[in-house]
Amino acid sequence: MRTFEIILLVVVTVLPFVKRKMLLQFRSHYILIFLGVLFLLHLLVEGARWQMFPAYFLLLIVGWRIKAVDISQPPRLNFLRVSGYFIFSLLAILAWVLPMVLPVFDLPEPRGSYEVGSKIIHVKTDRPEEITEKPDDNREFLCKIWYPSNTDTDDLKGESYLDPSGRAGFATKYGLPATALNYLEHVKTFVYPDIPVAVGSFPVLLFSHGYGSKATGYYALLTELASQGYIIVNMNHTYESLGASFPDGSQKFFDYDYQQKISEWNAELMDPMRKAFKDDITYEKRHQIAAPAIRNYFEKDIQARWANDMKSVLNLLEEWNAKGAFANRLNLNKIGAFGHSVGGGAIGRLAIQDPRIKAAANLDGIQWGEMIDTTYQIPYLYISADWPADHEDINSHVYINKSTDYFYETKLLNSGHPNFMDIPFMVPVSALAGTGNIDPYVGLEIVTKLVGAFFDQHLLEADQVNTQSVGEQFDLLEMKIYKGDSIK
Length: 488
Hints:
Elements lengths: L2 H23 L2 H19 L6 H16 L10 H23 L13 E14 L9 E12 L14 H10 L17 E3 L8 E7 L10 H9 L3 E6 L6 E3 L5 E3 L2 H8 L3 H12 L4 H14 L2 H24 L7 E11 L1 H12 L5 E5 L16 E6 L9 H4 L7 E7 L10 H4 L3 H4 L6 H19 L8 H7 L3 E7 L2 E2 L1
């Protein structure tokens, strides 16, 4: 919560219980003036938001009671007074809980030497859109580019946190009205739209989001990496992210009907594999049972579609590097890719298929499809959340062959699946957000340093950077390093 929010909540919570003592010291109008000034400071400095409405209502009640109380008469304990204090207490609890559960949070300030700019690019392809039933509908999607800049941003205002469609899609997912996330306007970002790209040639990273999540819900991670000198193409996979706002004003949201349609038949694949993880059998026997599900589970088709989206972007990079805002700014010999959840699996698929990807990282995604039968030829980083012991470790079968190059198998201890996103900042209650008990700022610091060191070492070939040193720096990071068939 913000400073004046906390002060306001403390005042409206405590004042009813000490108002008589206060009125013995100060005239009522002085106290009312104080309350009014406090409220105005909150509005002017921080701005109103709906999570504070119970606090505003309590402020009115407190003001009314201060004006109405007669301190010459001793307080009488009766049913109405007891009921009033009970209702007041319930309102006070609500007034504290709402802004704590949905705070105006602070994003980590990027540590790199560059400011960070952003630009939206609309990509149209000639591939038929698989998700809609319109015969003439071709696949199109948005990319948000995060890039380094040397612009002086002291007098500039950062962009709004999440675009309108991303907010609306997130609200719909959790059964909230579209306006429920308007308070995110108060979140300070360190990203500035359309400022000039820094002079130089920068490595390119493709980033793929989680299934049914916000494509731009990774501000902490992407801002940090862009500030370190990477140009990041943040994919927004249409109909499978929560929302996208296109240049013509149209919005396209997650297609829940399509999700249900493609996932209905998979129990026959998944049930034997889940049973194999519960049974006390050898790894080799479980591998034989798990392999058909890994090869054929419906998410492999999602990951294939997303990999094709990224291939479309790879095919455009030369054009972007020849003209426009990114002319001569893209180092096309230094292209990497990383993603989260289903996006992490899609990145893994792309890394098998496209030799333009020189290094890749999967942030807690299961990789379905062909990887179980092949081997990476490039450096690869896999970061897992700290799943409970009864969680099926499917990637232990997927990544059986690992890589002919470096393969990093890591785990972020005390973390949950959303700890790679901004979710721990948006909803800082682990039971609601599904996050672990790791401090969210510490968790993101570890992830950004690990991913940054990995790409610095294996994409930029920076001699002074060692990915292994990040594992040695943090007790909350487990790391195993493989090189070819050997463990290092």
